[in-house]
# Entry
Amino acid sequence: DATESVQEFRDKPIGLLRLGVSRPAYTSWLQPALAEFHAAYPGIRLELSFDDGFVDIVAQGLDAGVRLGHAVAQDMVSVKVTASEPVAIVASPDYLKRRGVPRRLTDLARHDCILFRMPSTGAVYRWELVDDGKPVEMEVAGPVVVNDTAAMLGCAQAGLGLAYVLEGTAAALVRSGALVKVLPSAVPLLPGFHLYYPSRRHLPLKLRCFIDFMVERLRQGGRVRSRRPG
# Structure
């Protein structure tokens, strides 16, 4: 801590930055930025703690957390780091060949859906959808319940049913043809990811650099010109 304090005084960001990150946030937002951030700030080491539930970052000794904007506690400082996040309903080609492609929301009643149990509350997530331009919530049914988005995508690839995920987490699988998007007009845009941290008078330089880097990356549409601090 003393070494980091001296380096911060010299305006050279170094040290360990601990972040609490949901798996969707990591897959669709953080992972693509890691190499650029390391090139820009080689003195900052990142420790990532994965949890799809609501995390008390203070109790866990984390510097900051990343969640969708509507999930951030009101007593935290919140900084938007991505644009709105589109949702996708996906399934394997094999599943759609066996069960047919859903064309309208009412078709979901005859389809198997992969359910997600919220780690924080224990409740099964009700799908947030759009019906004729109006937001609706739908309770779906299926053969398997998970509490991890990677497992949900794996179940979808295995042909177990439809999965409701952030589009960014399934983008590579959709491009490869392993998964297919359905009902595109029935899925909403969710608030973008926000980085949040406790209100404090002195923001550590390593965290300030991370925030500035990600905000600039958002402003430039997903890429920051590589730079090394002096």
About this structure: The chain is about 30% helix and 25% strand. Residues 225-230 have pLDDT under 50 and may be disordered. Helices lie at 2-9, 23-30, 34-40, 93-99, 149-157, 167-176, 205-219.
